[in-house]
């Protein structure tokens, strides 16, 4: 039997935690498989994708900057990936490449499973309207949140995202916020940071403490650092706070399940991430 090969495609991709997590999963289930890094330049992308099958690669994760760029090379796209407009998981089935997006499901599984937060009928506010925000927004709409307000410094992005959400989901009220205060965080149960602001030590605090309240769950998609200034501030005012490590874990678990058809060994995957996080 030959070793199955999986990996993560990106540029750059060196700091990814996915190899650690997926290799721990293969080991826990005694699967003859390995997960490696595929750092490819934009010039190498097409050739790499066209030869996945011939190279004996069974599945890949896709990260920045290729989540949208891989779509034209795929044979099929899950309904959710289609709605999100981005792919983070590809399954190689013979000569066919099937595209999925597990980011949104990772977020929901973490929120509802681990944090016991029920999204149904909640008012939520989100910062950022990029790729990760689209995944979270689509899955929040599937989970039937009551209202979703989105603020992005680039209003064109939030306008485009809200327009698309309105066309596809009728049970949620969507709103473009043109400023932070216009997000109406005081009426929300959940505030999500889906911008990269907070990753760098020099980044400013995203939301002033006065706009937060203690009945809020503040969820930052960033997991490195483990506690952004936003999460630190949320804790200081008595609100609940979570980083995105759980989302990373659950999106990886879902990818594992798509590739192998087996239930992901959550304890093994969680343990290696917690050692790092
Ligand atoms: P992205 O595509 O760059 O989107 C971020 C969006 O936020 C952009 O539209 C950006 O606008 C906007 N923005 C920047 N500063 C802002 C501010 N102060 N207020 C409001 N909006 C602002 O990034 P992404 O791929 O969606 O990723 C976002 C974050 O999520 C990253 O930190 C990433 O590491 C994290 N993430 C975590 C997971 C996980 O599993 N935990 C999964 C995916 C992503 P401009 O482009 O105009 O700057």
Polypeptide structure, described:
With 277 residues, this protein is an alpha/beta fold. It has 2 domains: 4-101 and 248-276, Rossmann fold, CATH 3.40.50.10860; 104-243, Rossmann fold (3-Layer(aba) Sandwich). Helices cover 35% and strands 21% of the residues. It contains 9 helices and 12 strands. The chain has helices spanning 18-28, 45-50, 79-84, 103-114, 131-142, 155-168, 229-236, 245-260, 266-276; strands at 4-10, 33-39, 57-62, 76-77, 89-93, 96-100, 123-127, 147-151, 173-176, 190-193, 217-220, 240-242. It has a 6-stranded mixed beta sheet. Strands 9-8-7-10-11-12 form a 6-stranded parallel beta sheet, sandwiched between helices. Helix 6 links the parallel strand 8 and strand 9. Helix 1 packs antiparallel against helix 9 (266-276) and helix 8 (245-260) packs antiparallel against helix 9 (266-276).
Question: What is the rounded Rg?
Answer: 19 Å
Largest beta-sheet characterization: 6 strands, mixed
What name is given to the CATH topology of the largest domain?
Answer: Rossmann fold
Full CATH superfamily name of the largest domain: NAD(P)-binding Rossmann-like Domain
Mean pLDDT metric: 96
Brief digest:
With 277 residues, the protein is of the alpha/beta class. 35% of the residues lie in helices and 21% in strands. It has two domains: 4-101 and 248-276, Leucine Dehydrogenase, chain A, domain 1 (Rossmann fold); 104-243, NAD(P)-binding Rossmann-like Domain (Rossmann fold, 3-Layer(aba) Sandwich).
For this entry, give a set of tags:
globular, Rossmann fold, binds NADP nicotinamide-adenine-dinucleotide phosphate, alpha/beta, 6-stranded parallel beta sheet, 12 strands, single chain
